[in-house]
Specification:
The complex is a heterotrimer of chains A (268), B (744) and C (179). Chain B is α/β, with parallel strands linked by helices and 744 residues long. Chain B has 25 helices and 27 strands. Chain C has one domain: TorD-like, CATH 1.10.3480. Classes of the chains: A alpha+beta (268), B alpha/beta (744), C mainly alpha (179). Bound molecules: iron/sulfur cluster (SF4) (3 copies).
Chain lengths: 268, 744, 179
């Protein structure tokens, strides 16, 4: 199973209901976004004058660049397939890709809030909420992003943005199920925002007429992977070491490492 | 008692604490609060679903449910039972909780102990506030007569007090913004053509063609209305959009008519003339239902394609194409009546043309045409009419003008009387939910009218611009905290199973602070003005229950039914036999107005200036939502759309910070940015309306974006209705303090 | 301490003639005496002596600082307006505060009121001061001080009337001393 979302630009009217519903659902700080709508154009395209929207959100990528950079404690986590009840255990840091539903999630209570994942995402889909932190592990905040509202989905509801969309422009479902509406959209040509340099398998995809797709892809596709910040590489380098340290966070090391990481960044 | 401990000692202890960090911190964090970072749990966790909400972030009134966690309203959602908006609500609807918990909202009765416009507020008790309102209004009434009191109402909560002042106190001087600055012209023009107000009753979901003149769905959002529109597009309707700007709707259109502003009537006349000349109109319908076809035909015969092409600055071919598409799709055509139509002071004639075109296409009572849903009527309970006559003080009759004015008195007549004292003085003012500083053009005139009052009271939810002029300012419970308006209607798609619904507004949470509802406030004032014996109901709850009893329902029953009562409906299609369309309206002729829709040219921009038009932003209901943190953040400013070629000539770039100055020298008091785009005509600039609030009490909205209303100082008045036209103002762009000529 | 906190809570309520009277005034002055805040005391006495309607002056100031004002409400007396979140009422910290009251076995008498109003928080501190020094410490550390710092500085910066400056300093003094 791989959850995915289609945004049908032929239907979207740019009303922002989705972004505000998400804010309410997840208490998203006012200046941060788990999903967003940008108005594009009116601008000239080879297909004629066009004006459309970029309703963006986490792509729950197949090879998420945000996952491997997470420096938090690695733990053994058991995942359960909500459909079959089958389980699987994996070693994960505080953010990971769920092996069953394909969503990329964050363990809020283990997140250090260092922002490495946010830096690593080419779509700018993550933010760090500094109003909350896991103080006992020296956290600076807690990273957040679109979760495809899995807790709602597990209860048989739609993601909050999908539910409120008055245009039915947001379609959610299992891309692996060929009979799902999302899979049908993919067959019709719904595309993720990818470029030669950024090709990490986005599962949020867009469908629209030629001129709107032209405007969307030329303005909103990331064309390079974020360059690794010193902080991020420091984290990555330290990671094998950290794996050895059990309960790493509680020893207060996280705080120390982060502080030095930050000062290094400043010197850059 | 330990308060003799000195500061020094305190500081010593503090430094010890600091030295033991961070391990001490880890240890101390072992229990309780710190370890619980309170990550947002989502709207499902620990919440109760409360039904019966009816949205009023705009006046479409979608049905809501609230998710309430431990007395806190955490989220609003569409009521899944709704056959109108369903589970959807728009951005504004979703942001309602930020209105509810806006710290700037009015909380207690306030008295202005400073000046009007520069208030110094003091919290007072309701008792004192009401005594003051009652005695001061009574004093005005005694000295100047009931007509000495003017009222500016807006919204559902203003209906009951409005009835009190009109029917019991007996003043005609009531001016509703929704009529005089928005929809009134449309309703009156359709009344003069179809004999009924159109609302937005076009069956777009089942249309073969949708014809929008200035409507910009997407930027203008009313949930079930947009659903109809999108359903129509999904079903393959051809979309024709007439707009100087490549609006959200134009972007989805098959034909975009990039019309010169203020010439829409010429366009419509040419389309109609073409249909008549080419015999492409619905003869059967015209014969059966239309009056004055011959006079009409003659009256529009001058409107050739070329004539209109020149006036409208669009190709004659395109006008023909539009006419052909309409004819080919007839009668299943939605000619949208419009909503906010007070544009140029010639609007009654334009809207008459909408209605006449609808009739020529036979697009009435048929799929896709002008179709009114058949909902339930719930009879309202209100004040009895006790004030006798009073017609001799009706400013409109006295002036013998504006014979097609919507109910109430045109705002201009009221303001003129205030300022001149003629034909009689107006010295008391009640503002209820309206913000006439922002909704009515020419702010200085409004200030002058207010300054001369003996007494002004305002009732509102938020401290809007007008509230700075109040002597007494009263806080009202908002739509989430009270019973109110009973919303009725039908399923949104007329070809679905026919159903009717009844949904009274019920509170999702209790009112906080000392906010009260309009029934209580009005009754208390009535008692103090000596009308205690006329009070029709004692509480909102009682009122709603009595009204519901008329359709065999009750609040209790509605609660059982999750806030919405649904019953079988009636087929809305068909035309009543006696339905009459006045293509030529004799009564209009008698009063000296053009009896056949007529194009009237309006003033052109002086050299160096350009015409300012405005529209809506999907996240705002004009000014009412400006202080909402979420909505504000979604679109913090209202960029000025400027044609790309003009921008290049002027050396302006996308994102440049600018101000505007109008042809009468009025400058915007806040800044906005430029949006450079090929999607607007060269002779027009555009911005979303409602930004740039001036009341500094609104901490979020204060000076965000430019206020177009401020720049609307030239008043065009529609002769038939007395309503204001607001798009006849011309502006220059001011950059870095220098005002720049706009090339032609 | 209980009495002190209750007194401070009272001093932040809307000034009404029923309580903002000579008795209250004399307690306030004697408190300043004990603390040896002579300058503050002298200023209060001076301003009161020179006022036409001292009560109304304080009411106007209260309204302006804490309720609705021009050019803007200076400091709404709720934690969630100043701390954690987007400056609206009933934010995250308000929910946390309510939860804290509950954990200590308390709830607001008026259930619908916002839990994070300064008067409630001071009243609650008065309760804790009785027999729960740890709870008091934690409440101050995690819930009260983080927002009060910000609140206080806004009030001190904008206050026109010495009364609220003095009250802010008193609250500051007594809540910090207990850390
Ligand atoms: S709610 Fe739907 S229509 Fe509105 S902006 Fe979001 S995706 Fe587009
Ligand atoms: S969009 Fe960004 S945050 Fe989401 S999975 Fe991909 S890389 Fe990670
Ligand atoms: S259209 Fe939006 S603001 Fe208007 S009533 Fe519906 S949800 Fe509320």
């Amino acid at each position: 199973m791989q959850y995915g979302m289609i945004i049908d630009l032929n239907r979207c009217v740019g009303c922002h209901a989705c972004t505000i519903a998400c804010k309410a659902e997840w208490d998203v700080p006012v200046d941060k976004e788990r999903n967003w709508v940008r108005r594009l154009g009116p601008a000239n395209t080879p297909e004629g004058l066009a004006s459309t929207y970029y309703p963006g959100l986490c792509n729950h990528c197949n090879e998420p660049s945000c996952v491997p950079v997470c420096p938090a404690d690695v733990i053994e986590k058991t995942f359960t397939d909500s459909k079959t009840g089958q389980t699987k255990s994996m070693e994960v840091a505080a953010t990971y890709k769920d092996p069953f539903n394909g969503t990329v999630q964050i363990d809020k209570d283990r997140c250090l809030g260092c922002g490495a994942c946010a830096d690593a995402c080419p779509y700018g889909a993550r933010y760090v909420n500094t109003d909350i932190k896991n103080e006992e592990i020296g956290g600076e905040g807690i990273a957040d992003k679109c979760t495809y509202c899995v807790t709602r989905v597990e209860k048989g509801l739609e993601p909050a943005c999908v539910q409120t969309c008055l245009a039915n422009a947001r379609i959610f479902g299992d891309l692996d199920d060929p009979n799902s509406e999302v899979a049908k959209y993919v067959k019709k040509g719904a595309k993720g925002l990818t470029s030669p340099a950024v090709n990490i398998g986005p599962n949020s995809r867009y469908y629209g007429n030629k001129k709107d797709m032209y405007l969307l892809t030329t303005t909103s596709t990331p064309t390079e992977m974020p360059s690794a910040s010193l902080r991020r590489s420091l984290m990555a380098r330290l990671k094998p070491e950290m794996r050895k340290v059990k309960n790493f966070g509680l020893l207060g090391l996280a705080g120390a490492v982060l502080v030095s990481g930050l000062t290094e960044d400043k010197k850059e | 008692m330990s308060f003799k401990v000195t500061r020094r000692k305190f500081l010593q202890t503090a430094s010890i604490a600091a030295a033991t960090l961070p391990l001490a911190k880890v240890v101390s964090a072992e229990t309780g609060f710190v370890r619980d970072p309170f990550t947002p749990p989502g709207s499902l966790e620990g919440t109760q679903t409360v039904t019966g909400g009816v949205c009023e972030m705009c006046f479409w009134r979608c049905q809501l449910v609230g998710k309430v966690r431990d007395k806190k309203l955490v989220k609003l959602e569409g009521n899944p039972k709704s056959i109108d908006n369903g589970k959807s609500i728009c951005a504004r609807g979703n942001a309602g909780i930020k209105l509810l918990y806006d710290p700037d909202r009015l909380k207690f009765p306030l008295k202005n102990v400073g000046e009007r416009g520069k208030p110094v507020w003091k919290q007072i008790s309701w008792q004192e506030a009401l005594d003051e309102c009652g005695s001061k209004l009574k004093a005005v009434q005694d000295k100047y007569g009931s007509q000495g009191i003017a009222m500016f109402p807006h919204g559902a909560s203003a209906k009951y007090p409005m009835d009190f002042f009109e029917k019991v106190v007996g003043t005609h001087n009531v001016s509703e913004a929704s009529f005089f600055q928005c929809r009134g012209i449309r309703d009156m023009a359709y009344m003069a053509t179809f004999g009924l107000a159109p609302d937005e009753n076009v069956d777009m979901a089942n249309a073969k063609a949708i014809f929008l003149i200035g409507c910009h769905f997407g930027e203008n959002v009313h949930v079930s209305h947009v659903k109809k529109y999108l359903k129509g597009l999904e079903n393959g309707a051809k979309l024709i959009v007439v707009d100087p700007r490549y609006s959200a709707s134009a972007a989805k259109s098959d034909i975009w008519v990039k019309i010169k502003p203020a010439t829409d009537t010429a366009f419509l006349l040419a389309v109609m003339n073409y249909l008549v000349q080419k015999d492409k109109y619905d003869k059967k319908f015209v014969e059966a239902h239309c009056v004055g076809f011959e006079e009409f035909k003659k009256g529009i015969s001058h409107a050739s394609l070329d004539w209109a092409a020149k006036i409208c600055d669009v190709p004659a071919k395109q006008i023909q194409e539009v006419a052909e598409v309409l004819a080919a799709s007839a009668p299943n055509v939605s000619v949208h009546p419009g909503r906010h139509v007070s544009w140029y002071g010639t609007d009654f004639q334009r809207i008459r043309a909408h209605a006449c075109l609808t009739a020529l296409l036979g697009a009435i009572g048929v799929k896709g045409g002008f179709v009114k849903g058949k909902g339930v009527k719930v009879k309202g309970i209100t004040w009895p009419t006790v004030a006798e006559g009073g017609e001799e003080h009706n400013l409109r009759l006295m002036a013998d003008k504006y014979h097609y004015a919507p109910p109430g008195t045109p705002t201009e007549l009221i303001r003129d009387a205030c300022i001149t004292g003629k034909p009689y003085p107006i010295k008391g003012c009640v503002v209820w939910g309206q913000n006439p500083m922002q909704t009515i053009p020419n702010q200085q005139k409004m200030v002058d009218a207010l300054k001369q009052m003996d007494f002004i009271m305002c009732v509102d939810v938020m401290p809007t611009d007008i509230t700075m002029y109040a002597d007494i300012l009263l806080p009202e419970a908002c739509y989430l905290e009270r019973y109110d308006f009973i919303k009725t209607g039908t399923q949104w798609n007329f070809t679905d199973k026919q159903q009717q619904y009844i949904a009274p507004r019920m509170p999702l949470v209790d009112a906080m602070f000392e906010r009260k509802d309009e029934i209580w406030i009005t009754n208390e004032i009535a008692k103090r003005m000596g009308y205690g014996d006329k009070i029709p109901v004692n509480s909102l709850e009682e009122k709603i229950n009595k009204e519901l009893a008329g359709v065999n329902l009750s609040i209790e029953q509605l609660k059982k039914e999750d806030g919405i009562h649904i019953q079988d409906g009636k087929d809305p299609y068909g035309v009543p036999e006696d339905f009459e369309v006045q293509l030529y309206n004799e009564d209009l002729a008698d009063k000296g107005y053009p009896a056949v829709p007529t194009y009237i040219a309006v003033e052109e921009a002086p050299k160096g200036f350009t015409r300012l038009v405005y529209g809506r932003s999907p996240v705002h209901t004009f000014n009412r939502t400006q202080n909402n943190v979420w909505l504000h953040n979604a679109m913090p400013v209202n960029p000025l759309w400027l044609n790309d070629e003009i921008a290049m000539k002027m050396g302006l770039k996308d994102g440049d910070e600018i101000e505007l100055v109008n042809s009468e020298g009025v400058k915007s008091s806040s800044k906005t940015v430029i949006k450079v785009t090929p999607g607007i005509r060269k002779d027009t600039v555009y911005m979303a309306h409602g930004y740039g609030s001036k009341n500094p009490l609104l901490t979020v909205g204060f000076h965000a974006g430019a206020d177009d209303q401020q720049l609307i100082t030239k008043l065009a008045i529609d002769p038939e209705t007395g309503c204001n036209g607001m798009r006849n103002n011309f502006v220059k762009i001011v950059k870095d303090g220098k005002s720049l000529d706009i090339p032609a | 301490m209980t009495d002190i906190f209750r007194f401070l809570a009272q001093s932040m309520r809307y000034p009404a003639s029923e309580w903002f009277n000579e008795d209250f005034w004399s307690v306030l002055l004697s408190l300043l005496d004990e603390l040896q805040w002579q300058e503050d005391k002298a200023e209060l006495i001076r301003v009161k002596a020179g006022a036409k309607d001292f009560l109304e002056d304080v009411q106007i100031e209260h309204t302006r600082l804490f309720i609705n004002a021009i050019p803007h409400v200076v400091a709404a007396p709720y934690a969630s307006v100043h701390c954690k979140g987007d400056g609206t009422l009933y934010g995250m910290i308000a929910e946390q505060t309510k939860k804290f009251y509950r954990e200590k076995g308390f709830a607001l008498a008026k259930e619908n009121d916002l839990p994070d109003h300064i008067v409630y928080e001071l009243e609650f501190l008065a309760i804790l001061a009785n027999d729960d020094p740890d709870g008091q410490k934690k409440f101050l550390e995690t819930l009260f001080t983080p927002w009060f710092k910000i609140f206080k500085s806004k009030v001190l910066e904008e206050a026109h009337h010495p009364y609220y400056r003095v009250v802010m300093n008193l609250i500051d003094f007594f809540t910090r001393e207990e850390l």
